[in-house]
């Protein structure tokens, strides 16, 4: 694994989280880097066998960087040709709306300073936790079995869906 992390510390029961120290190797047990988001995106597509993922982030520079890497991982997962639907900036309610509308799993990426949290949700909106798939994602990463694309024709794509955020805001307002 390139730039390993302390997986038992970074993977909690219901989230992937840690402190981003940039490219400095500080040897902190909770250290995380944007490459982890790539791994998680690819592994979510593989473990759910989904051809799509809804994505919401908090709009910070760090959140956007992790969302970009998550998207790259998801679209590069083997032969799935997954479409990542980036709904935009928001919270769990917006993501849940996107998951219900698109009927695909989703990811929420939030930050607080240099602390990063990635929460995953199944296509039915339930959290992906230890016992419902998060342990399989952690295991794939631990065994360096993060899926990569078979060929360029199988690469997915990223689509931006501000229409979903607008519709959600209109429906809620």
The low-confidence runs, each spanning 5 or more residues with pLDDT under 50, are none
Radius of gyration: 15 Å
Distance between the termini: 46 Å
Tally of separate domains: 1
CATH topology: Alpha-D-Glucose-1,6-Bisphosphate, Chain A, domain 3
Q: Mean of the pLDDT scores?
A: 92
Beta-strand proportion: 15-25%
Total helical elements: 6
* H-E string: HEEHEHEHEEHEH
Q: What CATH architecture label applies?
A: 3-Layer(aba) Sandwich
Query: Biggest β-sheet, characterized?
Result: 7 strands, mixed
In the sheet with the most strands, the strands line up as 2-1-6-5-3-4-7
Q: How much helicity do the residues have?
A: 25-40%
Q: Strand tally, please? A: 7
**What is the CATH C level class, in words?**
Alpha Beta
Describe this structure in words.
Helix content is 38%, strand content 22%. It has 173 residues and is of the alpha/beta class. It has one domain: Alpha-D-Glucose-1,6-Bisphosphate, Chain A, domain 3.
List the helices and strands and how they pair.
Elements: H1 7-10, E1 16-20, E2 31-32, H2 34-48, E3 52-57, H3 61-75, E4 83-89, H4 92-102, E5 106-112, E6 115-121, H5 134-142, E7 157-160, H6 162-172
Parallel strand pairs: 1-2, 3-4, 3-5, 4-7
Antiparallel strand pairs: 1-6, 5-6
């Amino acid at each position: 694994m390139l730039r390993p992390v302390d997986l038992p510390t970074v993977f909690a029961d219901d989230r992937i989280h840690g402190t981003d120290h940039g490219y400095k190797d500080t040897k902190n047990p909770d250290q995380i880097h944007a490459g982890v988001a790539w791994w998680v995106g690819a592994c979510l597509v593989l473990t759910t066998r989904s051809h799509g993922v809804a994505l919401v982030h908090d709009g910070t520079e760090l959140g956007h960087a992790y969302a970009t890497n998550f998207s790259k991982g998801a679209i590069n997962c083997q032969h799935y040709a997954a479409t990542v639907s980036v709904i935009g900036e928001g919270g769990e309610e917006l993501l849940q709306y996107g998951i219900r509308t698109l009927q695909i799993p989703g990811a929420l990426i939030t930050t607080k300073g240099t602390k990063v949290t990635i929460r995953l949700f199944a296509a039915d909106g339930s959290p992906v936790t230890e016992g419902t798939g998060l342990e399989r994602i952690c295991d794939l990463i631990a065994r360096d079995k993060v899926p990569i694309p078979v060929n360029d024709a199988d690469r997915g794509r990223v689509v931006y869906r501000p229409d979903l955020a607008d519709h959600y805001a209109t429906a809620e307002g």
